[in-house]
Amino acid sequence: EDKVVQSPLSLVVHEGDTVTLNCSYEVTNFRSLLWYKQEKKAPTFLFMLTSSGIEKKSGRLSSILDKKELFSILNITATQTGDSAIYLCAVLSTGANNLFFGTGTRLTVIP
Amino acid sequence: GAGVSQSPSNKVTEKGKDVELRCDPISGHTALYWYRQSLGQGLEFLIYFQGNSAPDKSGLPSDRFSAERTGGSVSTLTIQRTQQEDSAVYLCASSSFNSRATAGGYTFGSGTRLTVV
Questions:
Q1: Exposure winner among A37, A38, A54, A109, fewest CB in 10 A?
Q2: Per the CB < 8 Å rule, is A99 touching B45?
């Protein structure tokens, strides 16, 4: 059975801290891993990772995939209160019709 | 439209009643997905439509759930004889074939929060 496990489930940090969110997966015919940010209801796309070891970066956010160890991390540096959200990890398998999501990590950044 | 539009944004219904949730995808997007997000849970896949192909209904949790997509555009998710465990946020997403393959480009709507009392 496919599995996507995110940790921690929730995290509270102070503004300016750096956080690392984890996503491990067990899926057949892995194709890509995606990260989404969900602030209110609609998740918004952050990154798609297909190859191991290649960091994707957008501002203070970055992510990397390890296909040998079957995990990805999402780093956020110099956190701001606007980073408070649920961060969702999802996996797409070859031949699958849908993304398979983890339960998410709820990040709260306090001033 | 410019984005994926869902209605209503909130729905409170009595146990046992039927509800219909609507999703209007981005114009030209051939793929449409319904997901459910229960409190503290990740997104649970429900159903997928792609063009004129038969829908993938493998995620529907029971026969009380059904969905249709008319004219390859608007989709309606129907829940019959609602139960309290159906309370969740129902999210719709759409994508074009190319965006799904390259940018992982699901565009989500803002969802419908369903509360069954």
A1: A54
A2: yes
pLDDT digits (tens, 9 = 90+) for B15-45: 999 999 999 999 888 889 999 999 877 899 9
For the record, the structure tokens of A48 come out as 């798609």
Bridge partners, A106 (sequence order): A10, A86
How close are the terminal C-alpha atoms of chain A, in Å?
41
> CA-CA distance, B34 to B6, in Å (whole number)?
11
Write the DSSP assignment of B59-86 as a string of letters. T--STTEEEEEGGGS-EEEEE-S--GGG
For residues B47 and A98, what is the distance between their CA atoms, to the nearest angstrom? 9
Best CA proximity match to A21, nearest among A92, A94, A72: A72
Is residue A42 less than 8 Å (CB to CB) from chain B? Answer: yes
Interface check for A20 against chain B (CB to CB < 8 A): the answer is no
- Residue B28 has what pLDDT? 86
Kindly list the distances between the CA atom of residue A71 and the CA atoms of A65, A106, B18, B95, in Å, as whole numbers in the listed order: 6, 18, 41, 26
Confidence of residue B95 (pLDDT cuts 50, 70, 90): confident
**pLDDT score for A94:** 82
At CB < 8 Å, which residues of chain B contact A?
4, 33, 35, 40-45, 48, 50, 56, 59, 89, 91, 103-106, 108-111, 113
